[in-house]
Recover the amino acids of this structure.
């Protein structure tokens, strides 16, 4: 058994490619659990970061600095009464959140966290991701319709129109990045997520900087469209609180509502992963080609450990700054424990074999984290678009730009 | 068990095709008739892709054209449906009994 | 990639396809029909994957399930379905329809039993799994003209749909 | 729920829709429990898709009979009640009432009292506009300004608290002057606030004024012409944003306003963006007035000679002031007894709310939210 595991760790394909069902299942479970934890962490971070943008403190009561708040929220949502409106179409009402959840979690099958850290590597990877993530529109439409109420219906119509419109611009931007993968000697591109990152490695450049500023413009179009695609501020019309109370999930409560939220955050992470894979070099560390050599490799491989140690240090400063009152004793101890765990993880990450395996995942996660922060930042800064303006931006601004970039990329690809 | 052959796929496709035909011929609701047409097109697609396993990729290319066609058909069909519904306030296909109104 | 449990997945997916087909033509509520159709489309995408046609499977999901079916759901929501649900669901010629469909089915059975020699008994030619690229080359090479015509067809369909559905142009 | 169509007297609804598609008309009930109707306003919207065909406001959910209560209270006893109408700008309400009764009694507050009144009223105007800005921005989707404005409004409330012990419903003034002398360090606090707040106002403007989305959401939204404003009796920043230079502080000066130097900001288009700009300018002008008042505040008594039992002569009086939201008028009829025979309040929010229908017809649902926000209504004042 142990041999089996260690022999796998030495492999250099994904479990899906190797046809190894057991490992694929284990990967799926790990990814599922990891994403769920990431969603909870994201929930906490969003509330905290947003609060600090807005000169508030955010959650402070449950656990030190509100660290246990997501768990408290989860317990609250799970124990809440599950209301299904009388006039609702029960079956559809029941299925809708599941569809959104499945759509956003299925996408993770092909996301490469590292050259071998993916459940599988479909050769239509990016097409699969766009396709499956577009299925969540169905969930939105069904939720709005099944609630049998005005506000959810308007919200869902808005939402589906918005998601379909922005998918077009998004697809065009993606295609221009895929075109770039074919700029090698053999002249063949790829749709596979791992292949795209490897193409960036071969061409020694992130597609963000390829044909500057073309790659950057395509990336910007994608980055805007993906915010609209996930219904987040400033494109959060479907759930525009001040207009439609809560949009398509107005009638949902408790567990079902939390499934919508889980799906939304998972989708945010998923589309950010697409952006990272296509333009930001996926799991590649910064400067993989200029700062080469064993010395630089060592330096970059120490980053994950130091990051966790840094987090542990911040948590430890928090411990020191805790009020010295008996009332805060448990909180202080909790925070100290948290700091210790972070530090321990940091130390584990310094062990050479772990260090080598974990590096890819670390860089990938760090890049996705930047996008997650951007999401929060947008939400704190921008007012909300109106529906017609949103459509105008999608069809009249983003789509022509994306098509123009696509054409220019194709021309440059032929000429150069 | 018997290994899965092309014939298996063809039988599935044929069954799907018959289901689609039944839907088109017996249902009154235009929306469901249109969906049955989608079923028929899908059965054809399944056939094409199954054959492309044997005789090269032309079947796959053709099935993509069929999907394009289905998209166009759905758009125009639903457009007609809306126009029809606006004038007659019904979605029943056997009430379309006038060439002009 | 080695396929796993091919037989099981084939029967599972084709069973799902046929079940959803039955649901599509029997449900009273068009929304339920549409949902069943979506399920069937997804199952069919699985069948395409088993036939080593990943590109068609992807197009099926992104275009059919994500695009066309949303259009269907939109229209179903716009037209008043509550009344049509209370009405008679099958038309007057349903018996003749069933008979002719049965005849068609019998024809199929006949063809597949008598002419089974026409079809190879097994998947004789193992097509390599990565054929997306070849499909692309064929689309833009051999089938270029058809491709352009298809794009024209879509344009016509867009304009036609807008003209049909819009009250005041 | 009652059938909303019964309310739709002027919406020309005609016969009810046979189909959803044919007419595309949709009746939506916005409120009284809705996050963006600023309390308990209920707006019935007739929509064509997202386009607004007509609106009807249903008010009265917060009706407390303030005017009727006045008839059973003495003039002095009624004074705190007026604070509960526009609870966001309670000081202005008190000022209007006190001045109206003073006019009826034919007495005048001493100069120092007048100066204190001006300082507090103008500070209250700033606080009211800050609250308006925060909620308006939140309605349009910008979350952050709300917290910034509340942070700065807090400083004003602290000054109020130190002065009279209350923060919101202050009851700061009495008939004939002020009850309290300014506390030790009042001037210093106010000057400190005056130095502190202009950069903060710049900060709000930095977040919004040139923000593309904000400009797109507010420009050419909820337009109203000067003529319409006059016809409907709309006053305050809404009127001034349409280009009418009408401010009661200048037109019919009261308190100590003639002695100060300030400008009346006006807009040109009468759209939501102009109203936003006008209010931002007004905050700055208010600060200017407060600075002049604090620097020139005279010494002396703060209370005029007022009879213990107020029995105004038989007669009637109308006195209006420029409240943050517009013209706030009190019409008081006296029958010579200790209690008013009738008090009628002309609340600016109530009158301005009439303009909602004109402003949103033909616009989108999202604009209804923006327009309700830009009208700056307080339901306590609308319903009284």
């Amino acid at each position: 058994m142990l041999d089996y595991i260690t022999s796998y760790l030495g492999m250099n394909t994904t479990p899906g490619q190797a046809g190894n069902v057991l490992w694929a299942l284990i990967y799926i479970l790990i990814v599922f659990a990891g994403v769920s934890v990431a969603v909870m962490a994201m929930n906490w971070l969003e509330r905290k970061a947003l609060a600090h943008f807005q000169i508030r403190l955010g959650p402070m009561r449950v656990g030190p600095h509100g660290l246990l708040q997501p768990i408290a929220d989860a317990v609250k949502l799970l124990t809440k009464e599950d209301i299904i409106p009388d006039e609702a179409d029960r079956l559809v009402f029941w299925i809708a959140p599941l569809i959104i959840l499945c759509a956003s979690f299925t996408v993770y099958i092909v996301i490469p966290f590292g050259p071998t850290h993916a459940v599988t590597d479909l050769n239509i990877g990016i097409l699969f991701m766009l396709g499956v993530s577009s299925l969540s529109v169905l969930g939105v439409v069904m939720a709005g319709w099944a609630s049998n109420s005005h506000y959810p219906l308007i919200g869902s119509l808005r939402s589906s129109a918005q998601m379909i419109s922005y998918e077009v611009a998004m697809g065009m931007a993606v295609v221009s990045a895929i075109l770039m993968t074919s700029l090698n000697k053999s002249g063949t591109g790829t749709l596979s997520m791992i292949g795209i990152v490897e193409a960036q490695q071969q061409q020694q450049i992130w597609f963000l900087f390829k044909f500057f500023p073309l790659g950057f413009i395509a990336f910007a179009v994608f980055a805007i469209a993906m915010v609209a695609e996930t219904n987040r501020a400033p494109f959060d019309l479907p759930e525009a609180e001040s207009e439609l109370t809560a949009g398509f999930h107005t009638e949902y409560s408790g567990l079902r509502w939390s499934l919508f939220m889980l799906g939304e955050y998972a989708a945010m992470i998923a589309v950010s992963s697409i952006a990272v894979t296509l333009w930001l070099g996926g799991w590649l560390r910064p400067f993989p080609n200029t700062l080469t050599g064993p010395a630089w490799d060592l330096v970059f491989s120490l980053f994950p450990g130091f990051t966790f140690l840094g987090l542990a240090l911040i948590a430890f400063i928090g411990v020191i700054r805790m009020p010295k009152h008996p009332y805060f004793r448990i909180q202080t101890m909790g925070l100290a424990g948290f700091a210790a765990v972070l530090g321990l993880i940091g130390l584990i990450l310094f062990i050479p074999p772990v260090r080598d395996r974990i590096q890819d995942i670390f860089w990938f996660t760090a890049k996705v984290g930047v996008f997650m922060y951007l999401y929060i930042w947008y939400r704190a800064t921008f007012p909300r678009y109106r529906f017609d303006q949103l459509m105008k931006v999608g069809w009249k601004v983003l789509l022509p730009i994306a098509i123009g970039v696509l054409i220019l990329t194709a021309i440059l690809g032929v000429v150069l | 068990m018997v290994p899965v052959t092309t014939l298996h796929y063809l039988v599935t496709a044929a069954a799907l095709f018959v289901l689609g035909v039944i839907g088109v011929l017996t249902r009154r609701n235009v929306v469901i008739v249109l969906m049955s047409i989608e079923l028929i097109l899908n059965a054809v697609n399944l056939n094409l892709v199954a054959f492309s396993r044997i005789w090269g990729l032309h079947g796959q290319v053709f099935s993509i054209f069929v999907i394009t066609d289905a998209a166009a058909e759905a758009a125009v069909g639903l457009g007609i449906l809306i126009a029809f519904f606006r004038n007659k306030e019904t979605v029943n296909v056997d009430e379309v009994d006038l060439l002009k109104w | 990639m080695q396929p796993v449990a091919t037989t099981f997945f084939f029967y599972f997916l084709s069973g799902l396809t046929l079940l959803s087909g039955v649901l599509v033509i029997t449900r009273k509520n068009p929304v339920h029909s549409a949902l069943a159709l979506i399920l069937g489309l997804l199952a069919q995408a699985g069948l395409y994957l088993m036939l080593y046609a990943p590109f068609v499977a992807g197009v099926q999901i992104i275009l059919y399930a994500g695009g066309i079916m949303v259009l269907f759901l939109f229209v179903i929501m716009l037209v008043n379905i509550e009344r049509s649900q209370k009405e008679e669901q099958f038309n007057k010629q349903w018996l003749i329809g069933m008979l002719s469909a049965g005849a068609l089915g019998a024809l199929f059975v006949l063809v597949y039993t008598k002419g089974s020699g026409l079809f190879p008994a097994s998947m004789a030619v193992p097509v390599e799994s990565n054929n997306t690229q070849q499909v692309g080359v064929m689309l833009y090479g051999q089938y270029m003209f058809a491709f352009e015509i298809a794009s024209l067809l879509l344009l016509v369909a867009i304009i036609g749909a807008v003209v049909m559905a819009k009250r005041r142009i | 729920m009652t059938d909303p169509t019964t309310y739709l007297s002027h919406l020309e609804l005609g016969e009810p829709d046979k189909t959803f598609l044919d007419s595309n008309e949709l009746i939506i009930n916005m409120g009284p429990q809705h996050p963006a109707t600023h309390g308990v306003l209920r707006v019935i919207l007739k929509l064509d898709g997202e386009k607004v065909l007509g609106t009807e406001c249903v008010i009265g959910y917060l009706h407390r009979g303030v005017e009727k209560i006045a008839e059973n209270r003495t003039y002095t006893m009624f004074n705190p009640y007026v604070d509960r109408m526009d609870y966001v700008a309670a000081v202005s309400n008190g000022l209007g009432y006190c001045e109206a009764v003073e006019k009826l009694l034919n007495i005048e507050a001493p100069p120092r009292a007048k100066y204190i009144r001006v300082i507090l009223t103008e500070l209250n105007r700033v606080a009211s506009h800050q609250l308006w800005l925060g909620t308006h921005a939140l309605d349009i989707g910008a979350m952050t300004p709300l917290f910034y404005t509340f942070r700065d409004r807090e400083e004003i409330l602290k000054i109020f608290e130190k002065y009279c012990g209350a923060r919101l419903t202050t009851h700061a003034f009495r008939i004939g002057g002020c009850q309290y002398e300014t506390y030790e360090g009042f001037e210093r606090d106010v000057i400190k606030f005056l130095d502190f707040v202009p950069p903060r106002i710049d900060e709000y403007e930095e977040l919004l004024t040139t923000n593309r989305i904000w400009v797109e959401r507010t420009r050419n939204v909820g337009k109203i012409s000067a003529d319409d404003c006059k016809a409907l009796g709309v006053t305050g920043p809404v009127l001034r944003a349409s280009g009418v230079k009408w401010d009661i502080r200048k037109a019919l000066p009261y308190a100590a306003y003639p002695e100060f130097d300030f400008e009346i900001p006006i807009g040109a288009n009468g759209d939501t963006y102009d109203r936003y700009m006008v209010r931002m300018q007004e905050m700055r002008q208010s600060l200017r007035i407060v600075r002049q008042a604090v620097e020139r505040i005279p010494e002396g008594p703060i209370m005029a000679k007022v009879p213990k039992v107020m029995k105004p002569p038989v007669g009637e009086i109308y006195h209006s002031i420029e409240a943050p939201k517009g013209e706030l008028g009190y019409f008081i009829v006296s029958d010579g007894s200790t209690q008013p025979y009738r008090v009628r309040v002309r609340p600016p929010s109530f009158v301005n709310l009439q303009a909602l229908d004109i402003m949103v017809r033909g616009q989108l649902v999202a604009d209804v939210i923006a327009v309700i926000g830009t009208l700056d209504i307080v339901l306590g004042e609308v319903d009284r």
Notes: Chains A and B do not touch (no CB pair under 8 Å). The mean pLDDT of chain A is 83.
